[in-house]
Amino acid sequence: MSAEMKDYYAARAKEYDKIYAKPERQQDLRAIEQWLPSKFAQRDVLEVAAGTGYWTQFIAPAARRVVALDASDETLSIAKTRPGVAAVDWVVGDAYDMSLGEQKFDAVFAGFWLSHIPLEKLPGYLRYLNGFLKPGARVIFLDNLYVQGNSTPLSERDAAGNTYQTRPLADGSTHKVLKNYPTELGLSDLVSSFSRQFSYTTWQYYWAFDYRVDG
Known about the structure:
The two termini are about 30 Å apart. With about 220 residues, the chain is of the alpha/beta class. The mean pLDDT is about 95. The longest helix is centred in the first third of the chain and has 10 residues, at about 5-10. The protein has helices at about 5-10, 25-35, 55-60, 75-80, 120-130, 185-190, and strands at about 45-50, 65-70, 90, 105-110, 135-145, 155, 165-170, 175-180, 195-200, 205-210. The strands form two sheets. The chain has a seven-stranded mixed sheet. Strands 6-7-8 form a three-stranded antiparallel sheet. The chain has a single domain, classed as Rossmann fold.
């Protein structure tokens, strides 16, 4: 994670969960909270960019084991207070350079992380992630759909096609944040070299991409 992104999420930690309080998104959130846990039933799960642990609290009770990694002490300090996460192994670390030793997992979850990875780095990043996975492992990415009039407007696009938002925080600071909105076709193409099983699910404000790593 870039230094700028790490600083942004550290500064945002105390107000991050406001995003889950938006009234218009409650129906989607309840649906995803019901949909997600069974996908990880009795699996050894690596959660990348766990943030404040909002999704960890739903995954952990269903999983056999959860290792939850995030770059920010500030967000993980909030995550550790969630219900149902007493057995989670919390790791402060860089999602691009995860110091997890020889551990192998049969599932990965990343919520609102894929959209922050530069497009040019995505293929290499997924190959790196696969190095921590057992054959047949399940990977689920959850992220935002762009909804006109509700999502933060895009303020910039770079030469590689990455898009950016300008985000204000309660302390008065503003931050330029990389935020991409991949398509179903783009995601399918991205994993086609190592997965023959994948699916794309949408709600009004969110999407999930679920794939299995070929054995």
